Every structure is written in C-alpha cells, then in structure tokens.
Amino acid sequence: MPKDLITPEDEQVIVAAIQEAELNTSGEIRVHIENNCSTDVLDRATEVFAELHMHLTKQRNGVLFYVAIKDHQFAVIGDAGINAIVPDHFWEDITAEVIKHFKQDHYATGLANGIRMAGQQLKSHFPYNKQGDVNELKDDVSFGD
After folding, report:
1. Residue 28, Cα to own-chain centre: how many angstroms?
2. Which domain holds residue 76?
3. What Å distances lie between residue 37 and 1, 34, 61, 62, 69, CA to CA?
4. What CA–CA distances, in Å, run from 100 to 71, 96, 107, 118?
5. Residues of the chain with pLDDT > 70: what percent?
6. How far apart are alpha carbons 110 and 104 in whole angstroms?
7. What is the distance between the alpha carbons of residues 93 and 91, in angstroms, rounded to a whole number?
8. I want to staple 61 with a disulfide (CB 3.0 to 4.6 A). Which of 46, 69, 81, 115 is the partner?
9. Residue 100 is assigned to a structural domain of this protein
C-alpha cells in the first residue's frame, strides 16, 4: 500500500500545501499516489486525471500530481486551460523540484514544494474570485493500489 510510505503527517503536509495554493487561485490541484505504474507514466496520469473527474472544472484548470512510489515514477499534468497559457518550462521546473526531494525519500516535501510552485502559476493566470469561486475538487490525497 502506498500509505505505508506516506504517513498521516506527510498527508497533512501535502493537503496543507494544496489548500495554501488554492487560496489564491480558482485552479484545482489533486495528488494521487499508488505503488506501481505498469504503463507509460503520462498515460497513467491522464487516466487518473479522468478517473478523478479533473477535466470537469469550469475553467479547465486542474493540475494532477501523480506518483507511483515503488516504480519511482512521477508526472504532473494540467488540463487544457492551463496548458494553453503556462510557460514551456512550467512542468519541467516543477518535476525537477519534486524529483530532487524524492531522491532523498522526502516525498511530502517534494510534493508540497511542487504544489506551491503550481499554485504560484495558477494564481497569476487563474486568480481567486471571491464571487462564486467554489472548491470544485477534493483537497485530499487519493491512493491507488
């Protein structure tokens, strides 16, 4: 189980980073963690994105952090609304930051830092709107097998 490697404290750090990032943006961030990825990591992340209904946000501004812990696979992907406007190096910069911490087995720190980086970009392109902005997706960490 991935929960064996992600402690409740780690989960709290990750959820707090999601909530912090989403305070300033209408963007939505999710984290999905599982043990293995038996296919291409981007293909699997895309499947999970759909399974979590992340493509249904009003502004198409969801971001998924996907981790297959035992297979050492990571991907961060965004919906069409984000991909249309973020700089080319956006996903690579986040990936580099997250993996730097993963290599030291600091999963929560890596994810939290990457989430905050994503939040900064989302804030500039999808600012929080006090009128009618709702949290469209859960902030909790989802776990697979």
Report:
1. 9
2. 2-125
3. 13, 8, 25, 21, 9
4. 16, 6, 10, 16
5. 89
6. 9
7. 6
8. 81
9. yes
Q: Which residue has the tokens 């406007």?
A: 85
Q: Which of 64, 3, 59 is nearest to 32 (CA)?
A: 64
pTM of the model as a whole? 0.89
The answer to the question of residue 138 being in a domain is: no
Q: Which runs of consecutive H residues, i.e. helices, occur in the chain?
A: 8-22, 41-51, 80-83, 90-102, 107-125
CA distances from 65 to 23, 25, 133, 144 (A): 18, 17, 22, 13
pLDDT in tens, 11-49: 999 999 999 998 888 888 999 999 999 999 999 999 999
